[in-house]
Design goal:
The chain is mostly helical. It has 30 helices and six strands. The protein folds into three domains: about 1-35 and about 270-465, no CATH class; about 80-215, no CATH class; about 480-690, Hypothetical protein af1432 (Orthogonal Bundle). It has helices spanning about 1-35, 65-75, 85-110, 120-130, 140-145, 150-170, 180-195, 195-210, 220-230, 255-265, 270-295, 300, 305-330, 335, 350-355, 360-375, 380-400, 405-425, 430-465, 470-475, 480-490, 490-510, 515-525, 550-570, 575-585, 595-600, 620-635, 645-660, 670-690, 695-710, and strands at about 55, 60, 80-85, 215, 235-240, 245.
Length: about 700
C-alpha cells in the first residue's frame, strides 16, 4: 500500500516538474526572443531608406572591410609552403614500372605450354611479350630479353628506379610546372649511361610511364602559417550605441549599414522563425544538460519541486537583469560603451546557488550563465568575465561561516573582476583610459552581485522555505530559545550536543558532506530530552537513575519518545525541514539494546521490534553522520582511560554494528565514506578525551605532599 502511495506521489511530482520545465522553457525563450527580435522592414543594399532607423541596443560589430584590408597587408609576400609528397609517385609511376617488370619476368621465366616445341619457345615468349607489354620494342630487343635471368631483370628494375629517384626525389622534388623538364632529364640520364637493349628498354619504359609532382603545396602547413600571421592581426571593431542612428530617411543603404541592420534584426529577410529556432535549440541544449546533471549528481535536489523552481527563478532573474542593463545603459563614448558588459552582475546567480545549495552545483551553472552572457553580448570577453566572476563567487560562498563572509565575497569578486578586465584589456591592446573604465565596471559588477544576492536570499527563504547557510548560522547561535532552554534544563545533553556537533562537522568535511548542516543538526537533535531530562544518563548528576524504578518496556518508551518530542518541538519553533528530518532520523530504527537485553532476561518472548526507535532511517549523508557522531560521543565517554588504539577499534566496531543493522541503507553513504568518517572520529575523539600529561611541577608537589603525610 505504501509503495503505491510513493509511486503515485512520484508520478505527480514528475508531471508537475514537466509542466514547470515546459513553462520555464517558453518564458526563457520569450525573454531571449524579445531581446533579439526588433521591428523589421524590407531593407536592400542600394535602396533608399523609408525611415530613420536607430540602434535598439548596444552592440560591437566588426568592420569587415577594414579587417580584410589589414589581413591582406599582413599576407603580402607570403609564399606557399612545399613538402615532398610521394603518394602519386609511388602509387602510380613506380607501380606502373613494377607492373611492367612483373609481366615481363613472368613471361620470360614462367612455364611454357607442353605443346610448344623447344625451338619455338623463344618465338612464343616474344609473341606473349609484344601482346601483354605496355611498351613497344623491336623483335631483336624482345628476343634479347628472353635470355634474361631473374637477377638481370632485378638489376634493370633497380637501375630504372634509381634514375627516376635521382631526378624526382634526390634533387629535392619536382613541382607540377617542371614535370616536362624532369622527364627530359630522366631520359637524358638513360642516354648518357646506357646502350643497347638496356637503353632501349629504359627509354621506352620511362617515356611511357606517367609523371607526377613529388613536391607539392603542404596545405596544412601553409594554412597554419597563414593563421599565425592572421592571428597577429587585430580585427577592426565599431561600437554601435543604443539609440545611435544607423541609417537616415532618404539615405542610400550601404552594405555596412545593411550588415548592422541584419545583426540587430531590422531587415525583413531576417527570419523570425530562424532566430526563435536558434534560441530554442540553444536553450533546449542547456536545459537538457542541466536536467541530466541534476538527475545524475543531485537526485535529491531534482526530486524536490521547490528546489527546481528556485533554480528556474535564479536563471530567469539573471537573464532579465543582464538584458535590462544591456538595454538601458548608454554612454557618450563608444570605447567606454564597449566596456558596459563588464558591469553585468554575473556572479549573482552562482552566489545564490552556492548559498542555497552547494558550490559544485553553482560551478556547473556558472558555465550556463557564461554562455548566456556570451549570447546576449556577442563578446567572448564578457563570457570569460562571467565564468571567472561566478567561479570566484561560488568558491568563496562555499566557505560561508558567518554573515560577514558575504561582504568578503563581494570584495573578492570585485577585485578578481577588475584584474580579469585589466588582463583582457592588455591582451587586446586597449588604451589605459578604457581599461580603467572597464576595471571600474567590473569592480561595480562584483559588488552589485553580492548586494543582489543579499537582497534576494531573504525573499527566496521566505517564499520557498529554503534553509541557507546564513539561516543555519543564525540557528547555531547559543541564544536561540531552544538551545538556551536545552542548556538550562538539560545541561548534560547540551554539552553532549556540542561535542556531537564537533565530531559530526569534522566527519562531514572528510567525506564532502555539508559540515554546517551536521553541526546545527547536532545542536538540536536531542531537544526532545528537555521534556524528561533526568531520564537520560548525561543529565543524572546526583547518581540517581529513574529507570531503576520502572520496567524496561516503559524505559524504552521514554527513551524513544525523545525523538518524537524533539520533532514536535522543532515544528513548533519553525525550525527548517532539513533540521527536523535530522532530529527524526538521528536514531533511525535502531535497537534500544540496553533495555531490550534487560527485558529479555525476564522474558525470552520479548519482541525486538518493540524496543526499536520507530523512526525513518537516515536519508542523507548528513543525517547518517549525525547518527554515527551521536553514537560515538555517547559511547566513548565511558572509555576515558582507553588508549588511542583501543578507541580506534571501539569506533570501528560501533560503526560496523550500525552498518550491519542496515541503518545506512537508505542514504548514499559508501563503505569508503564510513572508513573516512571513522578516521575523522578517531582523530577528534583522541583530541577531545586525551589523557592529560602530568607536568614536572605537579610531580614535585605530589612528592612533597606525600613526604609530609609520612
Amino acid at each position: 500500500m505504501s509503495q503505491n502511495i510513493v509511486k503515485k506521489k512520484s508520478k505527480k511530482l514528475n508531471k508537475q516538474l514537466i509542466l514547470w520545465t515546459v513553462l520555464f522553457f517558453f518564458i526563457l525563450l520569450g525573454v531571449f526572443s524579445a531581446y533579439f527580435i526588433a521591428s523589421r522592414e524590407e531593407v536592400i543594399v542600394g535602396q533608399v531608406a523609408n525611415a530613420d532607423v536607430q540602434a535598439n541596443r548596444y552592440m560591437t560589430v566588426e568592420d569587415k572591410v577594414a579587417t580584410k584590408a589589414k589581413e591582406d597587408l599582413a599576407l603580402e609576400g607570403f609564399q606557399d609552403i612545399y613538402a615532398l609528397n610521394l603518394d602519386d609517385y609511388n602509387n602510380l609511376t613506380i607501380a606502373e614500372i613494377s607492373d611492367f617488370f612483373n609481366i615481363v619476368e613472368e613471361i620470360v621465366l614462367g612455364e611454357v605450354p607442353e605443346e610448344i616445341e623447344d625451338e619455338h619457345i623463344s618465338t612464343y615468349k616474344v609473341s606473349e611479350l609484344k601482346q601483354k607489354s605496355p611498351i613497344e620494342l623491336t623483335d631483336g630487343d624482345w628476343y634479347s630479353l628472353t635470355a634474361y635471368t631473374s637477377e638481370d631483370f632485378n638489376q634493370l628494375h633497380q637501375e630504372c628506379l634509381q634514375i627516376l629517384s635521382k631526378v624526382m626525389i634526390d634533387s629535392g622534388g619536382v613541382v607540377e610546372e617542371d614535370l616536362t623538364a624532369a622527364k627530359e632529364e630522366v631520359l637524358a640520364e638513360v642516354q648518357d649511361n646506357y646502350d643497347g637493349v638496356r637503353y632501349n628498354v629504359l627509354t621506352a619504359l620511362l617515356n611511357n610511364v606517367p609523371y607526377y609532382a613529388t613536391l607539392k603545396v603542404d596545405t596544412e602547413a601553409t594554412e597554419t602559417a597563414k593563421a599565425k600571421i592572421l592571428a597577429t592581426v587585430t580585427p577592426v571593431y565599431r561600437t554601435i550605441l543604443k539609440g545611435e542612428m544607423i541609417v537616415s530617411k532618404g539615405e542610400v543603404i550601404t552594405e555596412e549599414q545593411y550588415d548592422i541592420l541584419y545583426l540587430m534584426g531590422y531587415t525583413d529577410n531576417v527570419s523570425v522563425v530562424n532566430i526563435i529556432g536558434g534560441l530554442a535549440c540553444l536553450i533546449l541544449v542547456m536545459l537538457i544538460l542541466s536536467i541530466v546533471y541534476l538527475r545524475w549528481l543531485f537526485k535529491d535536489l531534482y526530486e524536490r519541486l521547490e528546489y527546481m523552481q528556485i533554480l528556474m527563478l535564479i536563471i530567469l532573474a539573471q537573464v532579465l537583469l543582464d538584458e535590462l542593463i544591456l538595454s538601458v545603459t548608454v554612454s557618450p563614448s563608444s570605447e567606454i560603451a564597449a566596456q558596459i558588459g563588464f558591469l553585468l552582475p554575473t556572479a549573482m546567480g552562482t552566489m545564490l546557488i552556492a548559498t542555497l545549495f552547494n558550490a559544485n552545483l553553482a560551478i556547473f551553472f556558472d558555465g550556463i550563465f557564461a554562455v548566456m552572457v556570451g549570447v546576449l553580448t556577442g563578446e567572448v570577453e564578457f563570457g570569460i568575465l562571467a565564468a571567472t566572476s561566478g567561479l570566484v563567487g561560488a568558491v568563496v560562498i562555499a566557505r560561508l561561516t558567518q554573515r560577514n563572509d558575504l561582504y568578503k565575497a563581494a570584495l573578492y569578486v570585485a577585485i578578481i573582476n577588475a584584474l580579469v578586465v585589466a588582463s583582457l584589456g592588455f591582451l587586446n591592446k586597449t588604451t589605459t583610459e578604457v581599461i580603467l573604465y572597464g576595471m571600474a565596471f567590473g569592480f561595480l559588477g562584483g559588488v552589485f552581485s553580492a548586494i543582489l544576492t543579499l537582497g534576494l536570499l531573504p525573499f527566496i527563504e521566505s517564499v520557498f522555505g529554503v534553509t541557507t547557510s546564513i539561516k543555519l548560522l543564525e540557528l547555531s547561535n547559543p541564544n536561540q530559545p531552544l538551545l538556551k532552554k536545552l542548556m538550562l534544563e538539560a545541561p548534560g545533553t547540551y554539552h553532549h550536543s556540542i561535542m556531537v556537533g564537533n565530531l559530526g562537522e569534522s566527519a562531514a568535511e572528510a567525506v564532502g558532506a555539508n559540515g554546517l548542516i551536521v553541526r546545527v543538526g547536532a545542536y538540536y537533535h536531542d531537544i526532545g530530552k528537555i521534556k524528561r531530562p533526568y531520564f537520560f544518563s548525561e543529565n543524572q548528576l546526583n547518581g540517581e537513575n529513574p529507570h531503576d524504578k520502572i520496567s524496561p518496556t516503559l524505559s524504552a518508551l521514554i527513551i524513544s519518545s525523545h525523538v518524537k518530542d524533539g520533532v514536535e518541538m522543532a515544528k513548533e519553533a519553525k525550525l527548517p525541514p532539513m533540521i527536523i528530518d535530522m532530529i527524526a532520523q538521528h536514531h533511525g530504527n535502531s535497537l534500544i539494546s540496553f533495555f531490550y537485553q534487560e527485558a529479555k532476561e525476564g522474558d525470552e518472548e520479548v519482541r525486538e521490534e518493540d524496543y526499536r526507535y520507530g523512526q525513518p532511517k537516515p536519508q542523507t549523508k548528513e543525517a547518517a553522520i549525525l547518527m554515527m557522531a551521536d553514537t560515538i560521543e555517547a559511547a566513548v565517554r565511558s572509555k576515558k582511560d582507553a588508549t588511542p588504539g583501543q578507541i580506534e577499534g571501539f569506533i570501528h566496531n560501533l560503526l560496523k554494528n550500525k552498518l550491519n543493522d542496515g541503518q545506512f541503507d537508505e542514504c548514499d553513504l559508501t563503505f569508503k565514506d564510513v572508513n573516512k568518517v571513522a578516521a575523522a572520529f578517531t582523530r577528534v575523539v583522541n583530541g577531545m578525551y586525551h589523557k592529560r600529561v602530568e607536568y614536572p611541577a605537579e610531580k614535585n608537589m605530589l612528592a612533597q605532599a606525600k613526604k609530609k603525610a609520612e
